[in-house]
Amino acid sequence: MVASVGVTRAVVECRGVVKRFGPRVAVDGLDLDVPAGLCFGLLGPNGAGKTTALRMIYGVAPATEGAIRVFGLDVATETRAVRARIGVTLQENALVEPLSPVENLRIFARYHLLARAEREARIAEVLDFLDLRAFADVPVAKLSGGFKRRLAIGLSLVSRPELLILDEPTTGLDPAVRIALWERVRELRDAGTSVLLTTHYMDEAERLCDRVAVLAAGRVVAEGEPARLIREALAVEALEVEVAPQAEALLLGGLDGVPRVRSGRQVALFVPDAAALLQALRGRGGEAARLRAVVRPANLEDLFLHLTGTRLESGEASAAPAAAGGRA
Amino acid sequence: MSVSPRHALAVWHRNFAMYRRTWKLNLLPNFFEPLLYLASIGIGVGAYVQGMGGTSYVAFLAPGLVAVSAMNGASFEVTYNSFVRLNFEKTYESMLTTPVQPDDLLAGEVLWAVTRASIYGGCFFVAVAAVGLAPLPGSLWALPVIPLTGLLFASMGLAFSLRITSMDLFSFYFTLFLTPLFLFSDVFFPLQERLAGAWLTLAELLPLLHPVRLMRHAFRGEASVVLLWDVGYVIGLSALLLGLAGRTMRRRLGS
User: Fold this and answer.
1) Where are the domains of chain B?
2) Residue A313 confidence (pLDDT)
3) pTM for the model
């Protein structure tokens, strides 16, 4: 593979990847480049095909169609070589509960055939990096959820991977633990590790990921830097207005070209200056003068809703995306 | 099948590390079971049993129970434990994110089950040898039969455990399969004296019969051509079942 100047080398390349389970299509023509040295987020609601895509990328599930290369290697034929250079943290922690973190790390280091001296050095490194020292010899069963998750991530770091794959790294964790884990992931990225993660938390994607791909029904529907994607598909700001569907035409009419997304009683309108829009709407007088509204930055969740008409974290379908506004 | 021995050993090591921590809970109860049979049936009931061709009943019973303890050791490992590792603890799934491949995994699991069978069978052999039921050194030929028995029941258990999707089905495996084997495989009474010709031929299908016959011949220090058939049966059936288990494992983990 030739890496041209100015273009980042891709650590993962998916071309036309399809995965079928019988009649069900889980991944439907996935084209994806994960650049080296970045934190890349694969976003989508539950069932969008994120985990299936990851399983094909680390070579445990064969693609029905298409080609996947990791570090330029065909993952279908050079699985072992690829796996030696990656670390994967599954959605569910797979820890040996009666054993300690050190013993768990040793087990994983053995899967990578690390010799004893190397093994112990890497284990010490991981314990320090994830602040697990104090619990190094306690049975895992006695650790809190946050520490178990740290250890699960630690297992995938013991081989010093060039690419770290995290499937829903912070699902079910409390906010402080999530923030601490994000910081660790950033440190890894800054030290040169490429990171590919899936999440259905938009705050996680926005704060952590340099680039994201939005996955819906097994396809990439948008891909790029989060802020830029939002700006281009929607706008920088959102005006969130509480308005019943039957009053929408009356109160929010005449705004052609302004992207909007409804969810429940809220309609979000996307414009460069939301305060000015609110002022203009209230200036129409009558009921509009009493509009209840919030001005906030547009976010990835808005984008996702706009692209798919699906609420991310609940997975519940809401109203179809507004006709106005261009698609990414 | 293409197994990387070092990766298979890493899988073995995972189970070994776990076992070292929990053996008091796991090993002891299962280990005592055949000892209890030896005491109750062998010594207790055996006192009323005559006509075992010159030996005591307890001496007749001992070799069969060595095979049974090896069968138990392997079976406990590859039934509930393997099922939990596959379905609940996601152990196999996490192994397959590393350079470990499905065939290495299977080999490591079998090797571990054989190890556990050898620990059970070995300890039991030492126990019966200590009370003079295994004439030494001739009966040392029983030792290689122990891992062979483990291999057979590890393969059988894995082929079953990887296929089923509900843990409840293990009660069928134990109660309707292993228990009848235990009761009717030449362990408690000599089959050839109880069964007529055609039935005797059919009985050759019973998996446990072959390790028991090998074991009994070893204890008596006798050799026979039929033992070649026994060894062939054990190895052949193990290979067949492992092939089946491997296919199931690749299907369940690799899709």
Assistant:
1) 5-253
2) 41
3) 0.89
